[in-house]
Amino acid sequence: MPTRRHILIGASALTLAVATSPAFADAHGPIRVAGVYTVPVEQQWVSRIHKAAEAAAERGDIEYTYTENVANTDYPRVMREYAESGVDLIVGEIFGAEREAREVAEEYPETAFLMGSSFKEDMGPSNLAVFDNYIQDAAYLTGIIAGSMTETNNIGMVGGFPIPEVNRLMHAFMAGVKETAPEATFQVSFIGSWFDPPKAKETAFAMIENGADVMYAERFGVSDAAQERGVLAIGNVIDTQADYPDTVVASAIWHFEPTLDAAIEAVKAGTFTAADYGRYSFMDRGGSSLAPLGTFEGKIPQEALDLVAEREAAIKAGEFSVEIDDSEPTSGS
């Protein structure tokens, strides 16, 4: 069953049941934002959207409510309910309900929709903008570190689904690994789920038994396997170093704040339209970063850290670009 929670912050919080002025109408007060998520808000990817929305609510820029654990078949209905209630902006991820979600957006031209999507902004109505976690810059930097830490030159990689959003991060990570471990080979597998820690863990166990000594933890469960088997892991989207102090060496962090803040500003200004917000996830926009090394401070080869610092500075200065490769990665060298 979908679960709905409300976070209403501000001097004059409105309930969702009140449908008054259309979207884009009030440029001064907080706008009403609803999140529609197919997984729990604790899940890596969605947690970053949720965190950014909570921060905007704390500032008083928005009034925020959300529904989590929404099945793809139920997604259009929940979107429609929020649009009918008069929210100004609906944010979520429509990877499994692209056509249906775009049809809903078309029905509510006065509502702004900011949706994680595999397609571009010109594939739907003018009030639906798209975004993606383009954190390939940070993923590449974690690869440099991973390559410097492997002893077997065997890297395991466990992902959810082989879609562009995952593929590009894996390819960037692999490119980073090759910078410091040019002979490295990769074991790549997808578990067919966004949230199945036991399955991810079992997949990781198999890779470790097959020689992997560093695991790319695109999904929850992988770091648990690495911890139990005494190998290293690289985190993705969120920083779990404190939870796995002897396991997670580095993590690529996604910051959704620049993406959401740009959309909020556009809604308030009455200029929100179909656009590709993916660029706000790039490192030079503050949309991604390398997590603090924590307990691995001083344990990573200095040569690798020097290369990370050099490439990070070049990325932020626009002098180095990490290739965006959305094709499905495969096992091998």
Q: Could you explain how this protein is built, in words?
A:
The chain starts with a strand and ends in a 17-residue tail after the last helix. The protein has nine helices and twelve strands. The protein is globular and about 55 Å long. Strand 9, helix 7 (222-229) and strand 10 form a beta-alpha-beta unit. It has two domains: 3-131, Rossmann fold (3-Layer(aba) Sandwich); 136-254 and 286-316, 3-Layer(aba) Sandwich (Rossmann fold), CATH 3.40.50. The chain has a six-stranded mixed β-sheet, sandwiched between helices. A six-stranded mixed β-sheet has the order 8-7-9-10-11-12, with helices on both faces. Mean pLDDT is 90; it is low at 3-23. It has 333 residues and is α/β, with parallel strands linked by helices.
List keywords for this structure.
333 residues; alpha/beta; Rossmann fold; 2 domains; 6-stranded mixed β-sheet; 35% helix; 19% strand; globular; disordered N terminus
- CATH arch. level architecture of the largest domain: 3-Layer(aba) Sandwich
Q: Order of strands in the sheet with the most strands?
A: 1-3-2-4-5-6
The name CATH uses for the topology of the largest domain is Rossmann fold
> Main beta sheet, described?
6 strands, mixed
Secondary structure: number of strands: 12
Question: How many domains, as an integer?
Answer: 2
Structural class based on helices, strands and sheet pairing: alpha/beta
Please bin the fraction of helical residues: 25-40%
Oligomer category = single chain
The percentage of residues in β strands lies in 15-25%
The low-confidence runs, each spanning 5 or more residues with pLDDT under 50, are 3-23
Overall radius of gyration: 20 Å
Please count the helical segments. 9
The coarse silhouette is: globular
Give the terminus-to-terminus CA distance: 43 Å
User: How do the helices and strands follow one another from N- to C-terminus?
Assistant: EEHEHEHEEHEHEHEHEEHEH
What would the average pLDDT be, to the nearest integer?
90
